[in-house]
Design a protein that fits this description.
Two copies of one chain form a homodimer. Chain A has 192 residues and is α/β, with parallel strands linked by helices. The first copy, chain A, has a single domain, classed as Rossmann fold, CATH 3.40.50.880. Chain A contains six helices and ten strands; from the N terminus they run βαβββββαβαβββααα. In chain A, helix 4 packs antiparallel against helix 5. Chain A starts with a strand and ends in a 5-residue tail after the last helix. Chains A and B meet through helix 1, strand 2, strand 4, helix 4 and helix 5 of A and helix 1, strand 2, strand 4, helix 4 and helix 5 of B.
Chain lengths: 192, 192
Amino acid sequence: MLIAIPLFDRFTALDAVGPFQVLVGLPDARTIFVSEQPGDVTDESRALTLRAEAGYADVPRPDIIVVPGGPGQARQMDGSALRDWLILAGAGLLDGRQATTNWLAMDELARLGAKPRHQRYVFDGKYATAAGVSAGIDMALALAGRIGGDELSQRLQLGIEYDPQPPHNAGSPTTAPPAIVAGLRARSRFAR
Amino acid sequence: MLIAIPLFDRFTALDAVGPFQVLVGLPDARTIFVSEQPGDVTDESRALTLRAEAGYADVPRPDIIVVPGGPGQARQMDGSALRDWLILAGAGLLDGRQATTNWLAMDELARLGAKPRHQRYVFDGKYATAAGVSAGIDMALALAGRIGGDELSQRLQLGIEYDPQPPHNAGSPTTAPPAIVAGLRARSRFAR
């Protein structure tokens, strides 16, 4: 099984590396970072650079594609090599599909024709989507379970010792203090 | 504030990138990946390569150092540039300190003179340690709270939408099915 993770300028690092760390543990799978061209790709903070080992053209038919988000994603939406590659790889994309995304981008998701769901991750047909940033870890564990069963998912979870104990219960707009939710919303690139 | 994350051959990617994604959001902080020499460093899976922007000698006095784990860590324990750098940066290391680590390495931690604690993360003086892999995210959020207060920690948590919902409750040896715990223990590099 070949798992490809596309990288683009200004991606969100944990969006890519969280699912990577889960899926790289799948038996008989190979995980590869790809981009328009092989080479270095820098994240949204400009402080982290990951290497894409191959270009899209080198990996025409991966079994799974894990697409990270990030501020650079907007530039990938129209006529980009990434979009072309996703379509080549068989995507009708999310039109009419149930999907989720970063809580700040839910309206954007609806505008793009998907049916937004306020869930940690959503499976609809062959598409899996995750909420913001760290949610890709949960999505990848669920995906591993669909591929290889619950025991495999549990083994991978214990392997990354994923027993989350955040110091606060503030990871969702429904649990964070309202002032913090409002503050992030005001500074969001999706703010109107 | 300067935050340095040392990389070495065969580090664990999420150990480095989880805390990175939290700490890069601190106001007035700069986060930098470092290594013995500037350049590419490859993780334990050989599928992920991160770039170290500077050598240890270029960053003599960071305010915070986040050291990842991984199979390559053993080679860093004796006479390595990383160990020298940590000592230069002021470490008496963990001798006599309360600390935690990956559940598979608890005995190793005791052997090294620390007082092992079965916790998600431990603060003892200026040292913070985290349990395996994904625990660095929780540790980094707690660290952010100590640096800038609970509101900052909550803002960073909502920023990475860290509202964990793993599909199973198998992230700790106390919650995972015993057969899965035994299986990982048998294959551990810390197994005797």
